[in-house]
Amino acid sequence: MFIVSLPNIITVARILAVPLLVWLIAEERFHEAFWLFVAAGVSDAMDGFIARTFRARTKLGGYLDPIADKAMLVAVFLVLGYEALVPLWLVVLIVLRDIIIVGGVSVLTLMKERLAMQPLWISKVNTFAQIALAALVLAVYGPDLAPESWIEPLVWLVAVTTGWSLLGYFLRGLLILRTREEERETGPT
């Protein structure tokens, strides 16, 4: 029974680490923030591995894991933007994308649409790029593991993949609405 709940415990610990990570970055304790961010990434991989290997997937875990990931990334980018370590326009783009996606899903859910919550491939690339950028910024200003010149190209990669992902989800939502309208006009197939 313990192994069944272990992935959820790890995920909750990751959620609880978000305020500490924000505080470390705000206090310019980038070295510690970098290692906590790395530990959060390792714990994300670990809880997924445990859940798959021991067939310990739960409905709660299915909700908590993406919430933990989003909470960590959004919080980190908000504080990195506040500290002027990443451009503010990028932070706005990242947060706006998430708000628009959640709003779109909410509207479709209210319209009684069945949604398969499958992320687009570009969304997976975007998430990886966001994680890489956050880790890189913390690595540059913390343990000095990379040159600062690597940040700007990654900022642009995150911007492009964020915009592309937003466009992809917008088009997916339009397709769902169009299909719904066609089914109403012709009847279900």
From TrEMBL:
This is CDP-diacylglycerol--glycerol-3-phosphate 3-phosphatidyltransferase. Pfam families: CDP-OH_P_transf. It comes from the Bacteria. InterPro entries: CDP-alcohol_PTase-I (IPR050324), CDP-OH_P_trans (IPR000462), CDP-OH_PTrfase_TM_dom (IPR043130), CDP_ALCOHOL_P_TRANSF_CS (IPR048254), Phosphatidylglycerol_P_synth (IPR004570). The chain crosses the membrane at residues 7-26, 32-51, 63-82, 121-142, 154-175. Belongs to the CDP-alcohol phosphatidyltransferase class-I family. It catalyses: a CDP-1,2-diacyl-sn-glycerol + sn-glycerol 3-phosphate = a 1,2-diacyl-sn-glycero-3-phospho-(1'-sn-glycero-3'-phosphate) + CMP + H(+). The lineage of its organism: Bacteria, Pseudomonadati, Pseudomonadota, Alphaproteobacteria, Rhodospirillales. Pathway: Phospholipid metabolism; phosphatidylglycerol biosynthesis; phosphatidylglycerol from CDP-diacylglycerol: step 1/2; Lipid metabolism. It comes from Rhodocista pekingensis. Its EC number is 2.7.8.5. Keywords: Lipid biosynthesis, Lipid metabolism, Membrane, Phospholipid biosynthesis, Phospholipid metabolism, Transferase, Transmembrane, Transmembrane helix.
